[in-house]
UniProtKB/TrEMBL annotation, chain A:
Keywords: Cell membrane, Membrane, Transmembrane, Transmembrane helix. This is Polysulfide reductase. Residues 1-10 have a biased composition (Basic and acidic residues). It comes from the Bacteria. Pfam families: NrfD (PF03916). It is found in: Cell membrane. InterPro entries: Electron_transfer_protein, NrfD-like. GO terms for cellular component: plasma membrane. Belongs to the NrfD family. The chain crosses the membrane at residues 47-66, 78-99, 119-139, 146-166, 186-204. Its main location: membrane. It is a multi-pass membrane protein.
TrEMBL record, chain B:
Keywords: 4Fe-4S, Iron, Iron-sulfur, Membrane, Metal-binding, Repeat, Transmembrane, Transmembrane helix. This is 4Fe-4S dicluster domain-containing protein. GO terms for molecular function: 4 iron, 4 sulfur cluster binding; metal ion binding. Coiled coil: none annotated. It comes from Actinomadura litoris.
């Protein structure tokens, strides 16, 4: 087919309001501009909210165990309570998002290694009771050994809870998620560490938050670096992380993470109000990151450009290599 | 079943797809060959599918997209006829202007490596003995994971119902030895039903025939068992690039990369755990040395 012919054909181009073109528009064909993929039908507060709460819970359990082992009982207790609340909220959000909530238990009909949602359901079945036991036994001051075992169990499973959600998103045809499968778990792990550290700064006495302050900086750095690598790898698909609603959220997340981490490092050790403010900024940054990733994925599925152009380039490269 | 060990079942060619799913005496794998070069856009397939499967109304909307107000496959549209008007001559020797009108009946591809089936957490989506992919409606809990997993944008959730729906390749008719309703209704044999192996041979012969007639654009889509989804159970003969028909040019089953995804997530989880251990080790016990 000659280039002018290609130009004449229906062009899949829908410019959204207020959106700036960052690179010249890619040339591609589509069926009346209609999406090739179906975007996720998940509700953002439920699923992006779950990504955030799951990270907060999972990383919180790790910090709780560390705090308990190193003589920081108030921080440990606060983080155990927040992990229980976060995983409880996650479970409610996940069930609420189902088309048939009354059939939520069908998630446990099978254990299916090819389905991250199946493995995730079983992971939550193990993690939830551990996190719950850790919190309840600590608050009730009952069975300290059982409480310690639950705390340890939650700390071992917590990192999996915090990072598997990246696989949940990446194991789809959504270009902005699947194409990011190498970096997304690190974005999520860093974001989770920052969120849990933020929760510690918000709820624990400053004398016990030394490790949380360091973890806040480390988490923010990991998230920022992984996010940049991810966008570099995505090429033209990275547009969806830079423009529109996702772009705003991604930028807000960066600003809040830098502010929160700086506050945690410089001020939070001395001033309770500064600690609380830094903690809140870190929590908000993590939430913005997750909602940004969510909306970026939806947009990349809704615009045929992000499906057709990378696949066409792949095909052309293969044809070029063969000839 | 022992033969499953050590094989990559997530991608690549897989000749015995039903046997690998556990059927001891599986019948031949069946599918559709949709030859769009003889489609006349009558939409008999859309109607037959709706009637046989009692698929609800899918919206009555004027689109201005040639003769297509159906728009695309979805929970309530299991066959969709695309209409593409092109400003170019029809036939092989016409000079000057003209209108080429492409029509093509789209359907679920019943992939060899079906992402919808792979990611379904309840086991609601399953592989039938015929090698097709079907939703068990009494199991589906409407988690919606299959929807963004499908590289073709086929399966979707019914809002009022909550569950997901798509083409069953008329599983009920297959069980009774009948061909699917759309193929039965197609007046030009654009939709051909049969054993997949036989359809692939027939399709290759048809492409050769069209090339001999000078129709150089004729090409098969989804017929190659080595493609990104291991070949489609429902494949097509197209007269232009796939994306012109709303099809992805190089679809890949997302679970092909799942082992690598888990490795990266595992590394990220260990980074989180190891990082926390390092941070607490550096800070030491509270009240102790810092």
């Amino acid at each position: 087919m000659s280039p002018p012919e290609r130009e004449e054909r229906a062009r899949g181009r829908r410019r959204r309001r207020g959106e700036q073109a960052m690179v010249p528009e890619a040339e591609f064909s589509s069926y009346y501009g209609r999406p090739v993929l179906k975007p996720p039908r998940w509700k953002a507060p439920d699923i992006a909210g779950y990504f955030f709460l799951g990270g907060l819970a999972g990383a919180g359990s790790v910090l709780a165990a560390g705090s308990q082992l190193t003589g920081r009982p108030a921080a440990a207790r606060a983080l155990k309570i927040s992990s229980l609340a976060a995983i409880g909220g996650s479970t409610a959000a996940l069930i609420h998002d189902l088309g048939r909530p009354a059939r939520f238990h069908h998630m446990l009909r099978v254990l299916k290694p090819t389905s991250p949602m199946s493995l995730g359901s079983w992971l939550l079945m193990a993690y939830g009771p551990a996190a719950g036991g850790a919190a309840v036994l600590d608050v009730a001051r009952l069975f300290p050994r059982l409480g310690a075992a639950a705390t340890a169990g939650a700390a071992v499973l917590g990192p999996a809870v915090a990072s598997y959600t990246a696989v949940l998103a990446a194991d789809t045809a959504v270009p902005a998620w699947h194409g990011a499968y190498r970096e997304l778990p690190f974005v999520f792990a860093g974001s989770a560490a920052a969120a849990a550290s933020g929760m510690a700064l918000l709820t624990a006495p400053p004398a016990e938050t030394g490790p949380a302050r360091t973890a806040a900086v480390a988490g923010a750095v990991l998230e920022g670096a992984a996010s940049r690598l991810m966008r570099r790898r995505l090429g033209m698909v990275a547009e969806v992380y830079e423009g529109g609603r996702a772009g705003g959220l991604t930028r807000a997340a960066e600003i809040l993470a830098v502010a929160g981490a700086a506050g945690a490092a410089l001020l939070a050790g001395r001033n309770r109000a500064a600690a609380a403010l830094s903690g809140a900024a870190l929590l908000a940054a993590s939430a913005c990151t997750r909602f940004g990733v969510f909306y970026a994925g939806v947009r990349s599925a809704e615009d045929p450009k992000y499906t057709v152009v990378p696949q066409r380039e792949r095909l052309d490269a293969r044809a070029g290599a063969a000839s | 079943m022992g033969s499953l060990i050590g094989r990559n079942l997530l991608a690549g060619s897989e000749p015995g797809v039903a046997a690998d799913a556990g059927y001891a005496d599986a019948p031949e794998r069946v599918g559709f060959f949709t030859d769009t070069s003889v489609c006349i856009g009558c939409k008999a397939c859309e109607v037959a599918c709706k009637e046989w499967n009692a698929v609800p109304e899918d919206g009555l909307e004027f689109t201005g997209m040639s003769y297509d107000n159906t728009q695309g496959l979805g929970s309530d549209t299991w066959r969709h006829v695309a209409f593409i008007e092109q400003d170019r001559p029809v036939g092989t020797d016409a000079a000057g202007g003209g209108l080429r009108w492409l029509m093509s009946s789209d359907v679920c591809k019943h992939c060899t490596h079906a992402a919808c089936l792979d990611v379904c957490p309840t086991g609601s989506l399953f592989r039938t003995e015929f090698g097709t992919v079907v939703v068990q409606q009494d199991i589906c809990n409407g988690c919606g994971y299959c929807v963004p997993a499908c590289p073709y944008g086929v399966i979707d959730q019914r809002k009022e119902d909550g569950r997901v729906w798509k083409c069953t390749l008329c599983y009920d008719r297959l069980g009774a030895g009948q061909e699917p309703a759309c193929a039965k209704a197609c007046p030009t044999d654009s939709i051909q039903f049969g054993p997949l192996e036989e359809l692939r041979e027939r399709a290759a012969a048809r492409v050769d025939q069209l090339h001999d007639l000078g129709v150089d654009e004729a090409r098969l889509y989804g017929a190659d068992p080595e493609d990104g989804v291991g070949g489609d159970g429902a494949f097509f003969l197209l007269l232009d690039e796939p994306e012109v028909y709303g099809l992805p040019p190089d679809p890949v089953v997302t679970t092909r990369d799942l082992p690598s995804m888990w490795r990266h997530a595992g590394a990220a989880a260990l980074t989180l755990l190891g990082g926390a251990v390092a941070v607490f080790a550096a800070h030491g016990r509270r009240g102790g040395r810092r």
